[in-house]
Each structure stands twice: as structure tokens, then as C-alpha cells.
Amino acid sequence: MVCVFLVPSDVTERMTARMAVMRKTVLNYIFRGACPPGQPSCPSTPSTCDARNNCSHCEPITLELCMNLPYNSTTYPNYLGHATQSESSVSWESSLFPALVQTNCYKYLMFFACTMLVPKCDSHTHQRVPPCRSLCRSSKERCESVLGIVGLQWPEDTDCNQFPEDGPTCLLPNPDVDECSPSHFKCRSGRCVLSSKRCDGHMDCDDDSDEDNCGCVERGLWECPGTRLCIKHSMICDGFPDCPLLKDENNCSVCKDNELACSNHQCVHRTLWCDGTKHCSDSSDEWDCVSLSEGSVVTVFRTAVDYHVCGDDWTMDLSQLTCSQLGLGAPASVTLVPDPPSVPGRRRWLHVHPDWRQRNGSALQGLLEKRGHACFSRKRVSLHCTKEDCGLRPAVRLYKRILGGRVSRPGRWPWQCSLQSDPSGHICGCVLIGKKWALTVAHCFEGRESADLWKVVLGINNLDHPSPYLQTRGVESIIVHPRYNRAVVDYDISVVELDREVEVTSYVRPVCLPGNGQLPQPDTYCYITGWGHMGNRMPFKLQEGEVRIISLSQCQSYFDMKTITTRMLCAGYEAGTVDSCMVINRRRALLTLSPHSRQ
């Protein structure tokens, strides 16, 4: 059973997102054993270059962050207490300042940061040249308050009074001089990166601007015909449509007239389609083989055509198997209904195999056989299953544990939905908890409280193109938790009433809600799912990954400026995997617990 615990997420405000990145960057340094000066429990770092050990000599600047300066040599120690460029390159300041630059708090912040990290070396005296006091003060006055938002302090070694007033003995930026050398590209944030990294398909600028206005070819990607959408070459003919109108999956199979194409474009003889045995390597020849036509009549898609099941020899055990295969509850009623005499042509029939009990088949289509065109009773099987259970995924089988995240397959999370509002499109992730109800975060509706502005999209994996399983519903009403407070981001949950019930299918169905007292325990595992951007202008595909539950006390130790309440859940890994530390309350994700997941 798969149970939902919290469904967070929206398109976070740009400033908040940048601050979160900055906060996380500093935390990563703490995890590695380093510590930003000025933070609690941070020991001072002794310098090997001091009054007794004068290391002054000019050396070329190699710190990539600062390759855009009007000077090209530096000397150490610098103004942050670093003894070498290598030490500067791994310092917390070398990560903090670029993140702070993205907030656009001060135009010349990066220039100031570089004069601190790699101070200019005077070619005559081999002494460092300081920044001017006015540059330091402007940087601090405009950017220190931004650091305060995430509980960080301005670097303690940057006391502006230590620097001289404006004059020839200190450095100021020249607004008329391009800050990047001819061999570098200037990011919107002010950072310079090597020109060879422009349009290489990798985000090298802090703001991704090195990948702006790049054609697909320049970025080493494939352009979807008729659009400017770029996808990786490995996505062509991979069985997953990524381009509008499925154009990346066209002309991928060269199957004979008597063959059918698998989802991965292999070819299988049509007589083997939906026979109960896997012939496609991805098993797609056995997908969606059984359905209930006309609401209740058992129908099997054999050899690419629909067959009805003859009621002769039908049993209650087969009814149970069929309801289970469809992801529904136990059979409520089974009747054999006469075939209408008005049906034109000959009816296609499948019969129960005489030794079906010995065949050990888990799918109905493997227990049936063709015996000409006759059915002795000429009665079809009409099956009504009980109310469908929650948390079932009949479209796919679960895969082994996934670390690091991956694109999710259609039908793997049939309760995942997208809250959308024109003209923005996707705003928040949500989860279907009933035929007419969805769950999401409360902060999704800030500034857009009217139900008329919203719609819920279900049965979709890729937000960029239509899905054959897609269902769209309007929003009847929005119920935000009465104790939700945006200032502290607690009770961040809401319920959405749809304008009409969804049609329950293998790709759209509700999730289970946990019972009273059913809480995930630390060191157990859960899945996070949600839509993440696959690079610049890449398709929005549903992502999934497995993360470990972290105790609230351990989580609180990571967020000293934020109160972690019992209404929140922490999950994550060490830096570099799915997420280094994530509070399930502010992310674009759906959290499900799966210790005993149904297949």
C-alpha cells in the first residue's frame, strides 16, 4: 500500500529559491567539515602567511570565479585570511558570493568579492592592493540584509574601515570597461565563464545564462520538428515521447505487416500480442490487454483486435483475477449476458483454457484461447468489481530502489496530479486522494484564491505534450488549513474539490491516506515525486527518487533559523544524491511511503 503524507510544492519566488540555494551551499560546507566564519561553533582558521611568514609574491590568477578582473596577478594572504588560491577556491566565501550575486543586490558585488579573494598584486612592491572603502560599504549595505534572511552573517574579515578612502591606492570598478576578457563569456549575474562553455549543454553560469539563446545543434541536442524544443539524442526512439505530436518516436520501428511495434520499437508478431507471455523486452505487448467495455463486459485486446470472453466455463476465481488485474476491488457481481443478435458480422470470442488452473498465469489473457468463432452459450461475461482500492498501480510493476533520482514511467504514480493556472501553466504538484478530491500545499494559492483560476491535470508524465491517459478537471472549491501562516510556513496544506469525479483508470487513481498514528519512522525510506526541469528548455518530466527519513531532532540541527514542527517531515541523503537535506513542506514533490508497496 502506498500512503501519502505530505504534498508540497509550487513555483517558489525567485528570491526565496536563491536564498535556499545559498543556505544549502553553506550547509554543504558544514557537512564536509568546513565552517563559515561567524557561524556558531566555528573555530578560527590560522593562516600560514602572517607577519612572521611573509609569502608576498605575484602569481597568475587561477581562480575561475575571478578571471574577469582588470588585473591578472594576485598575492597572498588575501583579505579573508586564505593563504593560497587553492584555499580560496574551496572556501565558503567562494560559494557564498556567487550565490549572493544572483540576488542582484549590488552590481559590483562580484568585483568586490574578487578583490577580497584574489587581491591585486602590485608589480613593483609585490604587495596586495585593497578595495576602496566605498566599494566595501556599498557591497555590505546592499547585500548584508539579504544574508540575514537565511540566517547568515557578512564575512567577519570584511571590516570596511580597514580599507582606504577612494584614491589611487585602492581599487574601484570601471563602469566603462567590460568585466570579462575576450576568452570569457559574461553571465547575467556578472560572473565570467570560458567562452568554450557557452552553449555546451551544461549550466556553467549561476543563472544558466550561458545556455540562453542557444540552438539545439549548438548545445549538442536534437530539435523536435516544427518546434524549438531540444531533447537529448538518447531520447529519440527510446519508447518515451518527449516532443509534441510524439515526433521523436515516429518512424522508429520498421515492422512487417504481420508485426506490431513495442513501446521500445522492437517488433513482435501480432499473434503473440496479449497472449500472457512477454515478448517485448519492455513487456509492452502485455500492457492494457484487459478492459471492461460498455462499463462491465470483459474484453481482451488479442492480436491487436478486441475479443469478448465466452461465458462457458467462466468461474468466480477468474472474476477475482480480472478485478485484481484491473486494479479494482473484489468482484461484486458476475452475470452472463446474451450477445445482441444485431451485432454485424461474426463475434470474436476467446474461451477459458481447459487447464487454466495449471498454467499459473497472473494475467487473464494468458488463460484464454481461440476456438474458432463460436461460443456455445453466446453469452458474454459482465463483471462488476467493488469500489477500487487506493494506492494500487496496475499499469506498472515497482522497480528496485532508485538512488539519485530518475524519470518516472507512465502509470507508476497514478495519483500524481498537476495544479495549473493560465497563463503560467503548472504551478504546484498535487495528489489525488479521492475521485473528487486532491491534496496540495496551502501556499500554492497565495494571490490566486479563486477556484475559477485553477484546473487539475491528471494522468500525465510530461507537462510539455499531451498524454493518451490525460484527464482534466476544473476546481469547485479550495479549502486551506485555517491555521496556515505563511510567515512560519506551518500547517502548509490544503484540499481541492474537483468540479466532477475523475474516471479511475490504470493511470489515474487515488492514493491511500495514512491512518491515525501511522507515521514514518527514521531510517525508513520513502519516494519523492514531482516535476523538475531537465535542463534549460528541456521537457518537464515527472521525476522520482527514494530518500531516507530523518528524525525531527536531526533535521532541526540542520536548520537553526527555522522551527521544524511535528507537522513536517524531513528526508534526504548526504550531498550529491537525490537531495542533501529536504524538509517536506517547501519542495516541488509528493512524498509516499512504500515499505510494503502493492505491485
Automatic annotation (TrEMBL):
SUPFAM superfamilies: Frizzled cysteine-rich domain, LDL receptor-like module, SRCR-like, Trypsin-like serine proteases. Disulfide bonds join 105-143, 136-160, 180-192, 187-205, 199-214, 237-252, 255-267, 262-280, 274-289. GO terms for cellular component: extracellular region; plasma membrane. One of its GO terms (molecular function) is serine-type endopeptidase activity. Residues 53-183 form the FZ domain. It comes from the Eukaryota. It is a single-pass type II membrane protein. This is Corin, serine peptidase. It comes from Oncorhynchus kisutch (Coho salmon).
